Structures are given as C-alpha cells and as structure tokens.
Amino acid sequence: MSRNAEYEARMKAKGLKKVTVWMPEDREADIRQAINMLVENDHLTLNSLRDVVSGKYVSMHRHQ
What we know:
alpha+beta, elongated
C-alpha cells in the first residue's frame, strides 16, 4: 500500500471523508482554518457567516 493510501486509510478510520472543494485563492486560509477547527472540535458548528461589506452576520439557514 502506498504512503498516500495508508494516510487516507488512517483518516477514514477516524471517521473522516475526503472532499475536494473549489474556493477563491484569497479565502483559502480562512476556509482551511474553519475546517480544521470544526474537525478538531466536535462541539463547534456553523450557523452564521459575517458579511465583510456590511459587517453583519448572515444566517446560513435563512440565506440558502
């Protein structure tokens, strides 16, 4: 088994799923940080995002 296959098997054993996501380059760091925090802390969840223009929070549940 290749090194990459072993890594993916370990991640699957942890209950994680490999997902490919396309994102703007300038937002990559923020998105990666948010994902890492969600993966490492089971008690965290997403329910709102902040609009950088208005400064207001936007509900993810009402803004679909």
